[in-house]
Amino acid sequence: YPLSIAFIVVNEFCERFSYYGMKAVLTLYFISFLHWDENLSTAIYHAFSGLSYFTPVFGAIIADSWLGKFKTIIYLSIIYVIGHVVKSVGAVPIVGVSKKCDIHIQALSMVGLGLIAFGTGGIKPCVAAFGGDQFAEEHTHERSKFFSIFYLSINAGSLISTFVTPVLRGEKCCVWDVQCFGDDCYALAFGVPAALMVLALVVFISGSWMYKKNPPQGNILVEVGKCIWYHLKKEESDSGLHHLKREGGWTAPPEKFYQNRLITEIKMVGRVLFLYIPLPMFWALFDQQGSRWTLQATRMNADFGGFNIKPDQMQTLNPLLILIMIPIFDLGIYPLIKKCKINFTPLRKMTVGMVLAAVAFAVAGIVEVKVNETASPEPISRECYIQVLNLADNQVNVILQGTNIFPDPFSPFQNDHSGTINIMSKRSTISSPGIFLKAHQDFPKGHTHTQCIFSEAVYTILNDLKKKPEQGMAAVRFINALTEDVNVTVGNEEFYAGKNYGVSKYATVDRGSKQASVKRKLTRPHILSGFNVGLLDFGAAYTVVITGTDNLEEVARVNRTEDIPANSIHITWQIPQYLLMTAGEVMFSITGLEFSYSQAPTSMKSVLQAGWLLTVAFGNLIVIIVAKAAIVNAIHFPSQWVEFFLFAALLFVVSIIFAIMAYFYIYVDPADVDEEDEKEKPPNYEDIALNPATKQSK
């Protein structure tokens, strides 16, 4: 291993720390600091991500055509650092407050993001290819190991930064609560990644004296354009750029000799790019770890014996498993397969990786089916959902005219979650010892209702909570049976419930055991002693009824019912799908990086790396199209698990297509092309090139 590899790997670790650390808090910066809405914040976030994977094309062209990889990395890293600095300055609280987050601050943020996208995208194909350049062609095994180490450094930087930067921003935790001028410190959260990018640049420059630096091969795009244009000209097709005649000596002009080689290189790159056509589908599934899988985690139980994890923190499983799996595959699985005399080629590895990703989504679909068992009711357009809550002192029987959805009597403070009717209005009959009530109730279709039964009346409440609380939160509301209005405080949320069975609105609170305090609106208001609400669990919704007091100072009787069941499937059931997806990534992504380098001619290594990265960009584009296209929204999948299985099936079909394409692919060694090129050169070629005056006599 060349010592120069250490500088390249450390540079990549710092750069990835910088990029992923900044992205970890970017959406919250848009929402909390710039006060954009969620839709605009999401759109800008994905636009930035997509741009970061489209700009590698420009970096590759600059590297292979003009500056070379070394200078391109240095110059674009400087632009990268400037972008971070601009982004950090735009997040300084004093600047933000003085300008009130006006158009100038937003423009500053967009300029910073644009520079970062151009910087990170520009150096992305160059660093990997530059690392591969440090190895001699005969050291292919060592070079393959380098790409594994290179990928390991990427995920190490990602893993650490996604934990660190939210703390620097000011995320409240048991130890730290960082603040700048009394607010969240986005300037520090962006400033530390900027410092890491400066460190990455310094480390890379420090190893410059030992790097192997291949010179640029000229303007590749111009040469390719000339070559294609030449062959399109019909009047010159007879001679052809690749027909070199040797009649009594080499009569073809020297420049056509080079164009002949260019044709060979274009064919090499074209064959590889053709193989890349199915690959975006893998990334379309892979990138949903941060969207669909995270949303799935919000509907699962994340309690680990007193320690709760956030749904989006499950994403850290991917880089963590990468760090574990890379040594397992390189030192265990691949050598074992080789000993079994199995020719496990790079394209076969990539095919298996795609299949594993498809299986991961199938497993996610199975988990989704189980998660849906605790889902809140979603009545269709011609239905409404009725929940009955018995607040009387005795059992009650409820009969809705023409239905038999409540066959059993309700005990006091018992509710029911299975009453779906498909008609707009019903006559209710409620009976129990001492109670016989009839009421004609209107139930607007497409909504969820709570029918509260008291000893003297029946009230129907239109629920303002239409689905499960998001982000693993819990929802709670209060019914006040006292004869005076009350304000109830739970954590930072305050609820108002009027007297004589007034109902507050639902509000979401963090999961946990909660205490509540109550203020009654008397002539001389005073605080009643707090009472225990109990455990408000992940994804559940509760109704707490304040039924009475023993004296003026205490709420003595409180009853609680569960309106929407809590998440019962534990979040650890997501681990198998993350294991499968990460194993697929190791076999697909790392192998693809090395394959892109090994099959590229010397003059186009960065260009082909950029082509590989473009598959990631198009994969993100597929997700955006699927999520936003009106025709897809009109299909209305009955449940998320259907979409998971659909994506799994699509990738499985694509993997079969890719396997067929890979079967007919013939591996090429660029070194053989160079060697053949040298053999075909005429002995006097250099003399002809140096002294055109002797060309005719020769």
Automatic annotation (TrEMBL):
<dbReference type="InterPro" id="IPR000109">
    <property type="entry name" value="POT_fam"/>
</dbReference>
<keyword id="KW-0813">Transport</keyword>
<comment type="similarity">
    <text>Belongs to the major facilitator superfamily. Proton-dependent oligopeptide transporter (POT/PTR) (TC 2.A.17) family.</text>
</comment>
<feature type="transmembrane region" description="Helical">
    <location>
        <begin position="349"/>
        <end position="367"/>
    </location>
</feature>
<keyword id="KW-1133">Transmembrane helix</keyword>
<feature type="transmembrane region" description="Helical">
    <location>
        <begin position="17"/>
        <end position="36"/>
    </location>
</feature>
<dbReference type="InterPro" id="IPR036259">
    <property type="entry name" value="MFS_trans_sf"/>
</dbReference>
<dbReference type="GO" id="GO:0016020">
    <property type="term" value="C:membrane"/>
</dbReference>
<feature type="transmembrane region" description="Helical">
    <location>
        <begin position="148"/>
        <end position="168"/>
    </location>
</feature>
<feature type="transmembrane region" description="Helical">
    <location>
        <begin position="268"/>
        <end position="286"/>
    </location>
</feature>
<dbReference type="GO" id="GO:0071916">
    <property type="term" value="F:dipeptide transmembrane transporter activity"/>
</dbReference>
<feature type="transmembrane region" description="Helical">
    <location>
        <begin position="188"/>
        <end position="211"/>
    </location>
</feature>
<feature type="transmembrane region" description="Helical">
    <location>
        <begin position="74"/>
        <end position="97"/>
    </location>
</feature>
<feature type="transmembrane region" description="Helical">
    <location>
        <begin position="610"/>
        <end position="632"/>
    </location>
</feature>
<dbReference type="InterPro" id="IPR018456">
    <property type="entry name" value="PTR2_symporter_CS"/>
</dbReference>
<feature type="transmembrane region" description="Helical">
    <location>
        <begin position="644"/>
        <end position="666"/>
    </location>
</feature>
<feature type="transmembrane region" description="Helical">
    <location>
        <begin position="320"/>
        <end position="337"/>
    </location>
</feature>
<dbReference type="GO" id="GO:0001878">
    <property type="term" value="P:response to yeast"/>
</dbReference>
<feature type="transmembrane region" description="Helical">
    <location>
        <begin position="103"/>
        <end position="127"/>
    </location>
</feature>
<keyword id="KW-0472">Membrane</keyword>
<keyword id="KW-0769">Symport</keyword>
<feature type="transmembrane region" description="Helical">
    <location>
        <begin position="42"/>
        <end position="62"/>
    </location>
</feature>
<dbReference type="InterPro" id="IPR043381">
    <property type="entry name" value="SLC15A2"/>
</dbReference>
<keyword id="KW-0571">Peptide transport</keyword>
<dbReference type="GO" id="GO:0015031">
    <property type="term" value="P:protein transport"/>
</dbReference>
<keyword id="KW-0653">Protein transport</keyword>
<dbReference type="Pfam" id="PF00854">
    <property type="entry name" value="PTR2"/>
</dbReference>
<protein>
    <submittedName>
        <fullName>Solute carrier family 15 member 2</fullName>
    </submittedName>
</protein>
<feature type="region of interest" description="Disordered">
    <location>
        <begin position="676"/>
        <end position="698"/>
    </location>
</feature>
<keyword id="KW-0812">Transmembrane</keyword>
<dbReference type="GO" id="GO:0015293">
    <property type="term" value="F:symporter activity"/>
</dbReference>
